[in-house]
Design brief:
- The protein is of the alpha/beta class.
- The strands form 4 sheets. It has a 5-stranded parallel β-sheet with strand order 2-1-3-4-5, sandwiched between helices. Strands 7-8-6-11-12 form a 5-stranded mixed β-sheet, sandwiched between helices.
Amino acid sequence: MKTTSRPSRPRPSAPRATPAPVLPASRRTYDRESLVAFLDALEAERVDLHEGFPEAIASILRIAQALHHAARTLKLDAVTRAVDALEKAASDSPDAFKARLDDLLGVLRRSIAEATGPKARILVIDPDPDTAAMLEVILSTPNREVFLAGSAREAERLLAREAFALIILELVLPDMDGRNLLVRLRAHAVTALTPVIVVSSFAQAQVKTECYALGADAFFEKPFDAAAFSAQVSAHLQRRILRDTTDPLTGLPDGLALEEAFERARAFYDLSETPFCVAVLDFDDFKAVNAVYGPLTGDDVLQKATTLIAKCLRAFDLFGRWEGDRFGILFPNTTLDEAAEILDRASQAVRYEPFRAHNGQTFHVSFSAGLVSLKADDARLEDVVERARRCVRRAKANGARGRVITEAQAVTPEKPRVLVAEQDEDAAAILAFRLRRDGFEVVRFDDGKRLVAFAERHRAALVILAAKLPGLDGFEALERLRAMPAHARTPVLMLTSMGRERDIVRGFELGADDYLLKPFSPVELSARVRRLVERHTPEILPA
């Protein structure tokens, strides 16, 4: 039996099946990647076992013990039984132990191949076809897909189309120093957190130190030990998958992922010398959608609307869910005007798309957005988001909806809009004169049906409804308004000559906020309107 220490040597690896395209990282991806790590380690130990290294058995049993726990957690009964058989064979003959190890490796390979779930994409950037082919063999497993790029330009084309969980980077490229490409990767929000392993023949201490300073996660000198390299890949993929958090409803990165991406990109922002913008999107009247149609419809709205928005973004923009119905977008290498143009397209895509509630009723939604440019002293995404949220509040000022506002814009606040349905010409004239004098925009209708049709497409700070109207009376119009998410909470003042108690009760039961009897005092009207609008301002301008 040999007693010498094990030398460092490449681990034999057979080509494996080409995996399918990747989906966003998930816990299942982490589980399969951990199984691959166990497989790599056991295959390396198998080589040493056959070559007679005595410590190989102890190493295999330690790995098997950890695998046993993982297999029980993942409910992989076949793997658990194979581990039990291996442990029992430790006291048998060497040939029996080797046979049980081969059985375990076979079961483990089948479990990896049969597992369902997302697959991790790896990008290898190396101009040497032999090295690239070797890396592809080492890295390929059923839960991974390996892409090869022979130049920086080819790599950036792939990065513009695909999301990668890991990047392998050679420093000597035909069109760019790999260190410059590393800087560009870290300056991009999408690749700011992607693990990068550098492989190169240039392994001087100064080169390694520079690569780590520029954001490399590991450095391997060519030629390298294949087993150690494979273990590093598995470890980085597992950490990346656990860190790559996503919102379970929309599948977008969550707030933590946005913060981490921003911090990594911000560290290299001064090096890139390019503009960087951040947007906050807030869906208008989303609480009303939940209140009127229920939370299931609200979830459907967020899923469909974010899909429409994502289609309007570029591959390197990072779109995520900040909290609730508020979303964030990181726009690297983008001016305010360019980002505003993208958001305008996204706003139109959402605004003109019909949404359907679970009761079959269709409706429309919109979002307001605040857009800011990164400043030199912006160290935290939270601070930048707060600036963007102030823009959102300006965008929603006085009941406005569906606006995109930047810090650079000098916004003139819109007059609060009041919708008035009154067929009496004298009463309508008094209302319009008084409301306009108080600073409101007045849109008057002489029947309830026309007011409801207008309200389906436009917001308002207040609605004044006469009870007696041709076609659709004030009570019916009120009921229609309360069924619209955009007007579920819009203050409504009923104006009528009916003083009967049952009419007043009916109005309040249908959702009226106040009741004013004719003939009315213009001073009293102003006071009631001002009170209603001010009372509802916190919902129009969320904190």
